Amino acid sequence: MQQFSNKKNWSSRTPIKVIRLARTISDLEGSIGSTDQIIWEAVKLNIMAERKACTGIKAIGL
Fold first, then answer.
1. How far is CA 54 from the centre of its chain?
2. First-to-last CA distance in the chain?
3. Cβ atoms < 10 Å from Cβ of 18
4. Looking only at Cα atoms, what is the longest distance across the chain?
5. pLDDT tier at 15 (50, 70, 90 boundaries)?
6. Cα 40–7–5 angle (5° rounding)?
7. Which residues, 6 or more positions from 32, have their beta carbon under 8 angstroms from its beta carbon?
8. Which of 37, 42, 50, 62 could lock 21 by a disulfide, CB 3.0 to 4.6 Å apart?
9. Helical residues (DSSP H) of the chain, grouped into ranges
10. What is the spatial distance between Cα 57 and Cα 31, in angstroms, rounded to a whole number?
11. Rounded CA gap, 59 and 32, in Å?
12. Residue 60's pLDDT is what?
């Protein structure tokens, strides 16, 4: 995650948000921990939310 964060020039808060989102996803799925697949899903959702914010579309629920 650190390398990806550096590559995307994320602030120091963004990985924390991604981890929180991954925990929420794993809770909703009933998983005990966050797998790589869940973390990647959280990263993709975060990127989609950033794109929507840049284009002026409101990201509902994110």
1. 16
2. 20
3. 23
4. 36
5. very high
6. 50
7. 26
8. 42
9. 2-7, 14-29, 36-55
10. 31
11. 28
12. 58
Tell the residue number behind the tokens 């994320």, with chain if given. Answer: 10
Query: What span, in angstroms and rounded, lies between the C-alpha atoms of 22 and 32?
Result: 12
Structure-token pair, residue 22: 């991954």
Residue 16, amino acid: I
The answer to whether residues 8 and 18 touch, using CB atoms and an 8 Å cutoff, is no
- Both tokens assigned to 41: 């899903």
Report the helix count and the strand count for the chain, using DSSP H and E: 3, 0
CA separation for the pair 19, 57 (Å, rounded): 24
For the stretch 18-60, pLDDT in tens is: 999 999 999 999 988 888 899 999 999 998 888 877 776 565 5
